[in-house]
Amino acid sequence: MNKYGQTVGRNFLSRLNTGIHQSIQMAIVDKVLIDDFTQHVELFSSKEQQMTEEKYLHTEKDYLDLLLAVRRKFLKNLIKLEMSGKIAHKKCGANQL
Q1: Rounded Cα distance, 27 and 36, in Å
Q2: Among the listed residues 92, 58, 59, the one whose alpha carbon sits nearest the alpha carbon of residue 78
Q3: Mean pLDDT, the chain cut into blocks of 10 residues (97 residues total)
Q4: Which residue among 16, 81, 87, 95 sits deepest, i.e. has the most Cβ atoms within 10 Å of its Cβ?
């Protein structure tokens, strides 16, 4: 959790810990032999919490910029996978994505 806490804010880390804890409790109720490693855990996050106004898209331009960035990242990863031979992909036009 501490290692993951270096990349996420405290709020998210706390919610993740709670989700894991609840899953472990359900497993214990189902008689699965498991130690609850989330008990007495201290959560440390070194990442600053994101400002509220930075969490949302405010304009259509923000939305289009995000869409373009996601599309570019997708295509970049697709090309890497094709070059590594992990997938075979038929060619398609950019307007099909």
Answers
A1: 10
A2: 92
A3: 79 89 91 82 75 83 94 92 77 56
A4: 16
